């Protein structure tokens, strides 16, 4: 399982880490041998994607779209992976100031092109940020948001 993340203010990174921790706990509970990797979007390679059987993409929404570094990751890897990862599982966690639907839709459309399987529905974590200061400020996920991210990570791993 590969968890790919990009974060500007910390929320998406925290979500990715919570998901990773929960997936590792399930792996230990099941005495499973599948690998779990947590990797920054800028560092993900086509080989990283080919080596994984499931993907969790964690990123912020900026201006109603997927944040740049995550979008660049998809741009860079889309064609090298086309027709090579079909049928694999994926989910997504979007951190957003107030909406998040634009970025969630964007990731789903990219993954649809790859013909990935969203067995674990994506999630938007609304950070309630609607002023410049609030948008740019470092973020901390609530306990409920952490629990939701953990649930996605654990469920996605358990489906392997």
Automatic annotation (TrEMBL):
Residues annotated as domain NADPH-dependent FMN reductase-like: 44-112
GO terms assigned for molecular function: oxidoreductase activity
Entries under Gene3D superfamilies matching the protein: 3.40.50.360
Signal peptide (UniProt feature, chain positions): none
Protein origin, superkingdom: Bacteria
Pfam families per UniProt: FMN_red
InterPro entries named in the record: Flavoprotein-like_sf, FMN_Rdtase-like_dom
Protein name listed in UniProt: Flavodoxin
Organism field: Advenella kashmirensis W13003
């Amino acid at each position: 399982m590969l968890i790919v993340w990009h974060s500007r203010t910390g929320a998406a990174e925290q979500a990715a880490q919570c998901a990773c921790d929960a997936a590792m706990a399930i792996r230990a509970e099941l005495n499973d041998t599948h690998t779990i990797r947590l990797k920054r979007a800028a560092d993900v390679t086509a080989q990283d994607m080919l080596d994984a059987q499931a993907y969790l993409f964690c990123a912020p929404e900026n201006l109603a779209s997927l944040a740049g570094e995550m979008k660049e990751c998809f741009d860079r890897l889309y064609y090298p992976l086309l027709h090579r990862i079909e049928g694999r599982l994926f989910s997504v966690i979007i951190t957003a100031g107030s909406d998040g639907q634009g970025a969630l839709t964007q990731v789903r459309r990219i993954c649809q092109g790859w013909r990935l399987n969203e067995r674990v529905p994506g999630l938007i974590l609304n950070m309630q940020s609607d002023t410049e200061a609030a948008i740019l400020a470092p973020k901390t996920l609530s306990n409920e948001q952490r629990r939701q991210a953990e649930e996605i990570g654990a469920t996605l791993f358990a489906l392997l």
